Amino acid sequence: MTYFCTRPIRNILTLILLIVGSIPIEAQTALRAKVTEQDTGLPLIGAYIRLSDKPKIIALTDTLGFFEVHSSLEGKSISISSLGYRTSTFKLAKGKIYQLKPDVKAIQEVIVTAQESRGLTSASTIRKHAMEHLQPSSFSDLLELLPGGRSQDPNLSRPNSIRLREANRSNNEQYATSSLGTSFLIDGAPISSNANLQSLKNAWEPQVTARDFSIMGVDMRSLTTDDISQVEIVRGIPSVEYGDLTSGLIKIERKRGGKDLSLRLKADMGSKLLYLGKGWEWGKGWTLNTSLDYLYSNKDPRNTLEAYQRLSSSLRLGRKFQLRAYSLDWQMNADYGASLDGAKQDPETNGGYEDSFQSDYHRVALSNKLMLKRRGQQWLKAIELLGTGSYEWQDMKRIRYINLQQTTAAIREMRNNSESDAFLLPYSYRAEQHVEGRPLNIFLKANARLALPIKFVKDELLLGADWALDKNLGRGQIFDYQRPLYPQHSLRPRPFSDIPAVHNLSLYAENTLSLKAGKNKFELLTGLRATHLFGLRPDFALSHEWTLDPRLNFAWTLPPLSIREKALTMRLSAGIGQHSKSPTIGQLFPDPSYIDLTELNYYHTNEALRRIHVRTYVVDNSNIALRLAHNLKTEVSADLDYDGYRLSCTIFREDMSSGFRQMPLYAPYHYKQYDTDGINSQTITEQPRLEDLPVSDKYELIGRSYTGNGSRTLKEGIEYTLSTKRIEPIHTRLTITGAWFRTTYQNSQEIMERPSTVISNQQIPYVGIYEDTDWSRNQLSNTNFTLDTDIPRLQLGVSLSAQCAWFSSTQRKALNPYPTAYMKIDGSIVSWQEDNQDDTLLRWLVRRNATANTQEYVTPFSMNLNFKVTKKLMQGRINIAMFCNKLWDYTPNYNDGGLVIRRYVDPYFGLETNIKL
């Protein structure tokens, strides 16, 4: 035992003696010197020392700024570099103090907020450094940086849809065109959701409906940010090159090249994230980038039965060719993404029954892009070709146990105006329903950029075309009709693959004029985009129409004005343009309605003698008059620059009066009613026969829903951004961003409503037609004050943001209580007369609550203080970052209608480490 204890100790002591004995020998041959900051004389930590003719690092400065090298190098030329300082060359000498000058330009370029674009329309650019400082988990976190944006606690348990320039965004699906009409491009390739049909039909539970984003566009949870080098968010009027959008354009560019191996580890109060990426570069212009990203999130860490997971990977290959008269840039991307979202109840707390929901999305995308640019002053400047395709495996599954309180029928009949006996459901059973979607999206695009030879004017012409195909190859709703998940509703199977593919062809042309007149500069961009949908039935109005989107942007750069020997530049711009979004294939070809009218419902204590007989109508819900949703945007902007200070302000108005909306439509339906009062339940030995029963003819007004252009979203507001240059010597910049938004939601087409009032055991036999059914106006005003400091000597970045919500409000308008017309039981429509309100039945069409609750509800001032810090080590190879949102807050209580509203917030924080090797 003693042997095994003393031997390791002896070895350790020997090693210590060797190390200690080597110290004086090394000290006799070491050359010691110091590196400091020129302006302050403070030591620089972690500065790199290299021989001028070699890239290898031979020393690093310590916490006091000292470094040591072998004395044999004395007199050699060395290069000293440090992040945020100018790299300088010196002669190596013992005991010398070397001073580095701050790289003011590099420090000024360190920006941790979004920058307003200098293009012809309002847009924000978010670069890599800003994203690293923000520490996002998904793309939705980046929206905090936009004018009017505010930090929100990540909620990855629900789909994250985007709403640009909206006040107190509405979660009403009737106004989802704003998010559906925001286009996302990744390296030029659009993400299409036009073939997304993943919706559990007839679902009413919040855990299911809250996860349905089939008509809301892109779920931003699925977009990782670690591969992104730059994002441009166009809020204004984009080029006609970009279509199938109404609200905005998101252009994501991912990093290419480099040789670093990058690792990111992040944990916050609701999620954990791991990212691994690697870049390669070879001769002759070859680059390759690969990445892998995994995110796990659960809203309540104590509840492991509800979680969201994201897995994504990417391979990006590229090469640049330099030819005699041309340069050629080729890019190929292969991407995989998965989103796994689910929730279930613990059987021990649910009576031992299974209750679960799972939604899985897997997406594979391939794209190829070829850009040919011609050198010199030639009429043909560039040709761009893009081809991309994606395929998704979408699966949704809901399981729950059903307990019925009354006899309920299940109907399988799928023929129109047919009669059949219904199947009687058991009172208790396990129900299961699947949704299988397989969206296929293909996109092709070709552009040509021309330079027109006009003297004294720079004139460029863009000509192009794109084509998109959207198709779903899935099996659709899969269920057992004898064990329906929602037994109170009629549902029939319909394979998604039966829905026709939709082809979207667009042609566009755009002219850019730039003219200098003295010290003035004028820019004019005019464009026209024409869109046509193929694959529709001939009776569709869209099958015969081309939709035109004209767009115009103008800018005037005034002559610079000298103030204290520094130039003040001012640019004024204005734009107007129409933007159109095509309906999804689910809106063009919805499931038919199955209207089941009970003609006989005979109950007997003996189950074998019970009988339910129904008449089924099958109604096509397609709206042949459906058009594209149009949004007319107008905006005016001003941009001022002076000595590193910049102020930009935009006034905008967006009017989308033809957004997509589910609208009710009523019609009379005939059925028979069999009288069972004469049946003797004591003597009956078989199910009652229809031919033996008295019968009468009945009519009923039945409603169904269809997709129409009946929603209006009106957006008005002001956006502003002020940024200063970094204040020396504390290297601090102040950025002020804010906005005032006013958003109005209302229906733009007449709506049918039937009163639920029952008189003499019958529902009111009339349907009112009203000019308005909802109207609400939301407002908000907020400003973010961000102080960010970058200290190169310490390789430290700190920001403090005071996010002030000056007020927010919402108000409903009094609606017209009287209908403009009404439908009778025979389907005829009659104009409303003033004396109708005195009729015994018609008076129920007057909406009693139409003028109620029109008070404006105002939420007063509140402020949150957010803190972020990043620390770089080893010359930026290791980056440690921490954030704490709502570190301090001011959210006072307030009175509303005599009630005291108490407000409180909880801090949200996280930590991450980034390593580059």
Q: Can you describe this structure?
A:
With 917 residues, the protein is mainly β. The chain has two domains: 2-102, Sandwich (Immunoglobulin-like), CATH 2.60.40.1120; 186-916, Beta Barrel (Maltoporin, Chain A), CATH 2.40.170.20. The strands form nine sheets. The chain has a 22-stranded antiparallel barrel. The longest helix has 27 residues, at 2-28.
Strand content: over 45%
General shape: elongated
Structural class: mainly beta
- End-to-end Cα distance: 45 Å
Tally of domains: 2
CATH topology description of the largest domain: Maltoporin, Chain A
Summarize this entry quickly.
The chain is 6% helix and 53% strand. The protein contains six helices and 52 strands. Strand 45 and strand 46 form a beta hairpin.
